[in-house]
TrEMBL record:
Residues 256-314 form the CBS domain. The lineage of its organism: Bacteria, Bacillati, Bacillota, Bacilli, Bacillales. This is Putative signal transduction protein with CBS and DRTGG domains. It comes from Lederbergia lenta. PROSITE patterns: CBS. InterPro entries: CBS_dom, CBS_dom_sf, Diverse_CBS-Domain, DRTGG, HotDog_dom_sf, Ser_kin/Pase_Hpr-like_N_sf, Thioestr_dom, WH-like_DNA-bd_sf.
Length: 436
């Protein structure tokens, strides 16, 4: 039977897009406490069912599929820009297709503005009105207000009219940054993208027997199964090693491995790959926040996904990508060393190289050394930076990794970093080698 929390989530999921909800309304409708309703609404917000806006409330929004993740709703825009809603609250769930900066004449502005757009403009009342009539939402910058008849028009057309204290350039930068971050998320493969769902995943009950395991193995051609209790919560994993030599009548809960490692739907596949390699696991159960079974993910699924990801073009570039692109082989010395230029992006507020960038440089240089030696990919197990001097902006660094040990599964590397002839950093890394 579903818990009260799950009942609330299902109720919210069944509400029409644009519906406004509140803690008291949920508590009264489903006969639960205010605290239970509040926690469920926050969970729904984390899952993308609703969006909460100051002075407006909580609104049911469309849960976006991954292919449309970079499209923002007007409700999300309000939170990104720390804005307020002047009118058109019923349209906050709608999706933004593009934004237009109104730094032009009114006629020219309207040529670029259409349905689903967001016009970013100052205190130009006529532009506000014309944009709404064209089917676009309006964002007024500089903290300005608009006239009452424009607010009434926004309510009538269900198109949001927003205001923010930021200027147009800053607002556009903030929205672009949000879209860019979503593009990066879109490229990251998560467990939910490749899992075998609960409807298709074979599992066993606590009261099942060893004989049931043999029958299920014959039926599915698999040998690893999660063991569930009456509430669909994962209590263990059972494999061939657990049942071999056991009496056929023995119940599964007596032979299973208890408290198995589990993952959530939002876990990255890269993290799962590391966990599987570290622990020597072939199959992992996927669970929700309540530890209820949602499916399984196998090592084969993970490897296929990672191979596919390597062949895909990258839309959003992360800071690791930027650092990696700036790290190049030292053409002058040809001794396996690398060069790296410290650009403004790579520095802290004092204008010296950031600690995070330094560790990324060291790790990437080590990864490339092992790739050159045909050792496969590297997963850093431990890193000790035992010397680091400030490195100024625009410096050109020389990175010299030296492999101390290289076994079949482990590697040990000492990395020295020079600025000219002066040593500015040293690191010792222990790595686990992963065959490609």
């Amino acid at each position: 039977m579903a818990t009260k929390h799950e009942q609330i989530i299902r109720y919210i999921d069944g509400l029409p897009v644009g519906e406004k909800i509140s803690v008291r309304q949920i508590a009264r409708t489903l006969n639960v406490s205010d605290g239970t309703a509040y926690r469920a609404i926050k969970d729904a917000e984390n899952k993308g069912y609703v969006s909460t806006i100051e002075r407006v409330g909580t609104i049911r929004i469309e849960r976006k599929k991954k292919e449309n993740i970079e499209k923002l709703t007007f409700a999300e825009i309000v939170n990104i820009i720390d804005g307020q809603v002047l009118g058109g609250k019923d349209g906050l769930h709608k999706t933004l297709t593009k934004f237009v900066i109104g730094a032009m004449t009114l006629d020219a502005m309207m040529r670029y503005t259409g349905a689903g757009n967001l016009l970013i403009v100052g205190n130009r009342t006529k532009a506000h009105e014309n944009a709404l009539r064209a089917g676009a939402a309006v964002l007024i910058t500089g903290g300005f207000d608009t006239e009452e008849h424009v607010k009434r028009l926004a309510d009538e057309l269900e198109l949001p009219i927003l205001t923010t204290s930021y200027d147009s350039f800053t607002v556009a930068t903030m929205i672009n940054r949000a879209i860019y971050d979503q593009l990066i998320k879109k490229e990251i493969i998560l467990v939910e993208d490749i899992l075998t769902p609960v409807e298709e995943a074979a599992s066993m009950e606590m009261k099942s027997t060893v004989e049931d395991w043999y029958n299920m193995k014959k039926e599915t051609d698999h040998s690893r199964f999660p063991v569930l209790d009456a509430r669909m919560k994962v209590q263990g994993m059972v494999t061939g090693k657990d049942v071999i030599g056991q009496d056929y009548s023995l119940s599964i809960d007596k032979v299973m491995t208890k408290n198995p490692l589990t993952v959530g739907r939002k876990t990255s596949v890269a993290s799962v790959a590391h966990a599987m390699i570290w622990e020597g696991i072939e199959v992992l159960p996927v669970v929700d926040d309540q530890q209820r079974f949602e499916g399984i993910i196998s090592r084969q699924d993970v490897l296929k996904a990672l191979q596919m990801a390597q062949r895909q073009p990258q839309v959003g570039e992360t800071i690791d990508d930027t650092v990696s692109n700036q790290l190049s082989s030292n053409q002058q010395k040809d001794d396996g060393s690398f060069t790296f230029e410290v650009t403004p992006q790579m520095t802290n507020q004092l204008g010296t190289i950031s600690y995070g960038v330094f560790t990324t440089i060291v790790a990437e240089a080590t990864n490339r050394v092992f790739r050159q030696q045909k050792k496969g990919e590297v997963a850093v197990e431990s890193m000790t930076i035992y010397f680091l001097k400030p490195v100024q902006i625009d410096s050109v660094l020389q990175i010299q990794p030296m492999v101390l040990e290289a076994g079949r599964k482990f590697g040990k590397v000492d990395v020295e970093v020079y600025n000219g002839n002066e040593i500015v950093g040293k690191a010792l890394m222990m790595c686990r080698l992963i065959d490609r």
